[in-house]
Amino acid sequence: MAIFLNENSKVIVQGMTGSEGMKHTTRMLASGTNIVGGVNPRKAGETVTIEGTDIPVFGSVGEAMEKTGADVSVLFVPPAFTKAAAIEAVDAGIGLAIVITEGVPVHDTAEFRAYAEAKGTTRIIGPNCPGIISPGKSNAGIIPADITKAGRVGLVSKSGTLTYQMMYELRDFGFSSAVGIGGDPIIGTTHIDALQAFQDDPETDAIVMIGEIGGDAEERAAAYIKDNVTKPVVGYVAGFTAPEGKTMGHAGAIVSGSSGTAQAKKEALEAVGVKVGKTPSETAALMREILQGS
Length: 294
What we know:
Blueprint: E1 11-14, H1 19-30, E2 35-39, E3 47-50, E4 53-58, H2 61-68, E5 72-75, H3 79-92, E6 96-99, H4 106-119, E7 123-125, E8 131-134, E9 138-141, E10 150-157, H5 160-169, E11 175-180, H6 191-200, E12 206-212, H7 217-228, E13 233-238, E14 247-248, E15 253-254, H8 262-270, E16 275-277, H9 280-293
Parallel strand pairs: 1-2, 1-5, 2-4, 5-6, 6-7, 10-11, 10-12, 12-13, 13-16
Antiparallel strand pairs: 3-4, 8-9, 8-11, 14-15
Helix pairs in contact: 3-4, 5-9, 6-7, 7-8
């Protein structure tokens, strides 16, 4: 099993013919992702050959879905056009839209997330995220495919680079799925959404959750874990060395008082039985103890 993305997923890429889209489409294909089309209204009807694979370009997400049966879209679209592209994907009714783009205006994200929630058919991951990988099955986004293997650990993370580090540190155990949810103040899929999916996945035995300072997402996740998650969870909160009152990192998080600090988040998670490492390596070691003890 895997969450949100599996070997049967048919993936299209919005913005495939741009430089970033082409680069990462090539990487996704090389890792075994079933990419069935690209979307670019100005290049509709063309065919792009990547790694020996002919990929048709469609004029819209709806057309791509109709012709290919696509159920996942990965968006490599400039920030100014991301809202329109996401709304197009939602209007087409695609099941999963993964918004990789960084620098999307927060009000745009708020608008297309609310639109997706109102429609109720499309799960959005991101924006400003590395995407999702179910190792050995499919890879949608920019996560390196060769740093880990398939296994029984689930990973949900706000940070792209820490996603990669944790996957590498626990590569001998492997992952069912790793989800980079993005570090923006407003995102589609949350820690809680991924925790619920991993809890419901019979082939995920334990969960790693990576958060960062600012906001209260980790505290809310802790409350959810207390009431709903029976599988072991270990955590890491990026920002233990951050000075208070400073804007830190891509989350743009301002830490004031105890609210939103790494220590406050660590305490909230530990209060519900989640072991929290002070470094990514320490967090990986805590998960290793759990996996070796079971």
